[in-house]
Recover the amino acids of this structure.
């Protein structure tokens, strides 16, 4: 068999520390659970994740996802969890689905947590069954490099699953991911939000990027013109040793994963 259907899902509404939230969310932000760039879902985002999972579970069995792959960030894993529970599927970590991070002028973007560390807090993660196929470089990516990564990841994942029993997969990722522009896939839905009680609440497209880069002193062209972000051929599968971080960083509020 071959993969015939790909569901691409953006994570639910995330917490925004600059804007007050209900007490549970504010308590989360007082806890050193994750780096600043890896916020949890808001209470509303967890509701959205539950609504997405419920909709997927109502699909005929012949149309439901048979495998779930998620970015290694907390907001995507929280989004994937209700669907994984309702569909009785494990969550496979794929670093190639990670957030698009702009090229930095200095320093490096932090490494995500390892699958084994994340599995301590998301029990549906299978930390050993799927070695990630790609990982973005810590120096960040241009938009062209990001598109190349997204395209290459889908190709490698489909190739890996060729000949197996999986025909339908769910990718839980971030706003910048989009469909194949070369027409290899027929698009059935684009930004569908009918399964959410409040529908679409925040539109995102690449016009946001110009505004962000023009106002963010930490992002933009690298200071050394000879130190360009890596090309697509330099993308590499992540090393478990390189990606591991202390589990002491994680302190999940009681009952969070059950909501």
């Amino acid at each position: 068999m071959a993969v015939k259907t790909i569901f691409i899902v953006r994570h639910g509404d995330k917490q925004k520390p600059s804007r007050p939230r209900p007490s549970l969310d504010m308590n989360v932000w007082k806890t050193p659970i994750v780096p600043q760039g890896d916020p949890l879902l808001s209470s509303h985002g967890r509701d959205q994740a539950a609504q997405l999972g419920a909709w997927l579970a109502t699909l005929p069995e012949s149309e439901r996802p048979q495998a779930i792959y998620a970015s290694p960030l907390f907001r995507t894993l929280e989004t994937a969890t209700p669907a994984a529970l309702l569909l009785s599927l494990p969550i496979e970590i794929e670093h190639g689905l990670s957030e698009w991070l702009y090229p930095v002028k200095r320093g490096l973007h932090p490494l995500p947590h390892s699958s084994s560390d994340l599995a301590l807090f998301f029990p549906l993660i299978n930390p050993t069954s799927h070695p990630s196929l790609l990982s973005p470089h810590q120096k960040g990516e241009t938009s062209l490099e990001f598109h190349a990564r997204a395209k290459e990841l889908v190709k490698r994942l489909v190739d890996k699953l060729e000949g197996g029993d999986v025909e339908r997969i769910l990718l839980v990722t971030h706003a910048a991911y989009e469909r194949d522009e070369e027409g290899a896939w027929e698009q059935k839905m684009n930004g569908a939000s009918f399964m959410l009680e409040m529908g679409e609440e925040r539109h995102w497209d690449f016009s946001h990027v110009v505004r962000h880069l023009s106002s963010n002193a930490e992002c933009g062209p690298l200071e050394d013109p000879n130190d360009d972000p890596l090309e697509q051929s330099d993308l590499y599968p992540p090393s478990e040793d390189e990606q591991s971080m202390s589990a002491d960083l994680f302190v999940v509020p009681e009952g969070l994963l059950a909501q």
The first helix runs from residue 23 to 29.
